[in-house]
Amino acid sequence: xxTSVGIVGAxxxxxxxxxxxxxxxxxxxxxxxxxxxxxxxxxxxGSRMQREGFVHHGIYLRFARxxxxxxxxxxxxxxxxxxxxxxxxxxxxxxxxxxxxxxxLFEVKDAAVYDLDTQAPKVRFRQGSKIEELECDFxxxxxxxxGITRPSIPSRMxxxxxxxxxxGWFGILVEAPSSTDELxxxxxxxxxxxxxxxxxxxxxxxxxxxxxxxVKNWPDGRIxxxxxxxxxxxxxxxxxxxxxFQKSVIAMRSFVVEPLRYGRLFLAGDAAHIVPxxxxxxxxxxxxxxxxxxxxxxxxxxxxxxQPLKNYSATALRRVWRAEHFSWWMTSLLxxxxxxxxxxxxxxxxxxxxxxxxxxxAQTLAENYVGLPLD
Length: 375
Hints:
This protein is α+β, with helices and mostly antiparallel strands.
């Protein structure tokens, strides 16, 4: 087989080693920046998002038992976010690709990439009992942090930057009505908590926990007790309880590989970088990557100009490192660290107070949260 651009991956940056049913059913987070929303609409895959997504014009920061709203439109010139889960985005992308008669190969095995430093890179894989080879002009590595494309770059040619956090998130999905009109980020002596939503009937809640903790250590009673304690407010707000039907522990890390190109292989999305979920940047960075890459590829096929492709890594990394910094800052501001002293805790409270009392500081948070312009 032959194609112009071979895409390896099963996330929003690329579509696919798993079954269609599996990738569409895996429930994931989904806070879409304004630029990501605009991109999906411009690409013709935003109609269901516009019908079913929840537009949020701010978030709440809760600390010292008080809530403080960060109003996005007034701080960013009218920009907002849309809560629309990643697996719903994937459904829309798959449907659009199939409608356009694009070729998607699900459930392939033993994928590997070859000849990356030539003008005819290849993807070899097993489908059923057959070994297949796909020859390409370029390969887009969109196969996530544990994929095969990044390790295919010689180690001497890639530089990896990592920060592993000493805590994780214990996440639950619960059948309950929404307790808040916008996300709540809570700083508490017992640890961080987050209240999010998936639908009017399904809510997503998180608690800071030990990264090595296990789901079996968290019976429902303990979860609710901890959530109520960390989210308590002087305003009398109350968290709605319901049936918990999913529990998981999420590790927290920051990661970037440089450069994002080797020969005719280009990395995008989680294959290239990971951010802690506090800043809601993962899916949005993937979308920003492929916007830059797709424009560079379109330019190449239109004019044979290679400079935009040569610029891809530097262009994408500028945004990546801005998002890495913001996600690190939000994580450091809101979580308790195991070696934290009372002094550090007071510094966090002082900075939170500054964020909610200074327009300039609040604007910095809002601009980064809703996302910097894609162009």
